Amino acid sequence: MSMTMAEKILAKASGKKEAEAGEIVMANIDVAMTHDLTGPLSVESFEKIGVDKVWDPEKIVVVFDHQVPADSIEAANNHIQMRKFVKEQKINNFYDVREGVCHQVLPEKGHIVPGEVVVGTDSHTCTHGALGAFSTGIGSTDMAMVFATGKLWFKVPETIKFDITGKLSDYVYAKDVVLNIIGKIGADGATYKACEFGGETTQEMSVSDRMVLCNMAIEMGGKTGLVEPDQKTFDYLKGRSSKSYEVMKTDSDAASLKTMEIDVNDLEPQVACPHHVDNVKPVSEVEGTQIDQVFLGSCTNGRLDDLRTAAKILKGHSISNNIRMLVIPASREIYTQAMDEGLLRTFVDSGALVCNPCCGPCLGGHVGLVGPGEVSLSTSNRNFKGRQGSPDAEVYLSSAAVAASSAIYGKITDPRAM
C-alpha cells in the first residue's frame, strides 16, 4: 500500500505495517515536550492519575521559555513547580531559563530526528517536522496521559503537499512563502491535515527556513508540518544527535495525498494584517502603515539567518525615534553566534533593545507588550486580537527583512526599496 510520510510514521509508531488516513491508531511517543506555561497543568493532571513515575524520563524534555526570567509571582511559582517535578521524576533533559525557545532548543540539542513521533504542549510543535518527524501540539491533559503511558491516540491525517517551485527574489524569504500559502487557502484550509512542503524551492531552503514553513502549518489548521529529509537534514543532525533514525518519504500515488502547486517566481514580500494570519497582503498594499514597535524574534523568525538579514539592513542606520525595536534571539546558541558575528552590536548601535532568548511579546505574557491603540510589526506567527498585549492594539506579521526596514522609517516599508 502506498502511503504518505505521516501515514508511514504513525504506522511504525503504532506497530502496524500500514496506516490509512482517517484510521485511529495508538502511537508510541518518541519525544514529549512541555514548557513553563503549559507544564504545570500537565503535572497536576498527571498527579491526579495516581501514577508514581513517568513512563520514560529520558524521552521527556522540559524547557523554560515563555516567561523567563519569571515576570510575576505566578510565573515564579510555575517555575518552582516544574523544577520540583523534574527533580522528582529524574528528568535529565531540562533546560532552565537560559537556553531559549523550546522549538529551537529541541532540534539544536539533538532531541529531534526523522521518523519520530514528537508531541508538545504548544501548538507550534509542528516546527520539528522540518527534520522529517511527525510533530504536533497536544493539550496539557493529553500530555499527562503521555507522561503516564508513553502513548497517545491519533487520527491519521490526510496530506496536502505544497509543491513550491521558482526562484525567490531578493528580500523574499520562507516567511513570505508560507504567509502567501496561508492567505490563499485560509486559516482552516488544511484543517487536521499533514502539511508537507516540497518542490525545488523547498529543497534549496536551509533547515532554518524549512522550520519557518513547518512552524506555521498550524496557522492554516494543519495537524503537522513536514519536509522530506535530505542531505541538508543529515548535515544539520551531525554533531547534534546520536540517535538512530529512519527516513520516511511520501509515495506519489498515496491515496490520501493532494498536491497544491505554488509558484514563487513573482512573489513579493508578504504581510499578514490584523487580526488574522490569513489576512495576507503584498507589502506594496500596506506600505506606509505607521507602527509603534518592531519585534524580531520568536520560534518563527528568531534564528541566525533572520538576525543576519535584519542586521545587514540596519547596519549604518538608526531606528526611528518614533518606535522601539526588540530583538530576541531564539536560543542561547543563536545569541552567542550573533554576538560572535557582531550582529548584536549592530542592533544595539541602531537603537534596538536586545533581550535574553525567550518567547518575549509573542504570547502577550512577557516583555514588550503593546498598549491600546498601538501597532506592532512582528516576525512571529500570530496576530490575533490581544495576542501581544492590549486587545485594542494591532499586530502585523512579516519577515525579518520587512521588520528591519520598517524599523528604520517607523512605518511598514518594502525592503526592496532600501
TrEMBL record:
GO biological process terms on file: L-leucine biosynthetic process
Residues annotated to bind [4Fe-4S] cluster: C299, C359, C362
EC number(s) on file: 4.2.1.33
Domain Aconitase/3-isopropylmalate dehydratase large subunit alpha/beta/alpha: 8-285
MF term (GO), any: 4 iron, 4 sulfur cluster binding
Keywords (A to Z) from UniProt: 4Fe-4S, Amino-acid biosynthesis, Branched-chain amino acid biosynthesis, Iron, Iron-sulfur, Leucine biosynthesis, Lyase, Metal-binding
Details of cofactor binding: Binds 1 [4Fe-4S] cluster per subunit.
Pathway: Amino-acid biosynthesis; L-leucine biosynthesis; L-leucine from 3-methyl-2-oxobutanoate: step 2/4
EC top class, as a word: lyase
Catalysed transformations (reactions): (2R,3S)-3-isopropylmalate = (2S)-2-isopropylmalate
Cofactor: [4Fe-4S] cluster
PROSITE patterns noted in UniProt: ACONITASE_1, ACONITASE_2
Source organism superkingdom: Archaea
Pfam families per UniProt: Aconitase
Family in the record: Belongs to the aconitase/IPM isomerase family. LeuC type 2 subfamily.
Function: Catalyzes the isomerization between 2-isopropylmalate and 3-isopropylmalate, via the formation of 2-isopropylmaleate.
NCBIfam families reported in the protein's UniProt record: hacA_fam, HacA_Meth, IPMI_arch, PRK00402.1
Name under which the protein is recorded: 3-isopropylmalate dehydratase large subunit
Source species of the chain: Methanobacterium paludis (strain DSM 25820 / JCM 18151 / SWAN1)
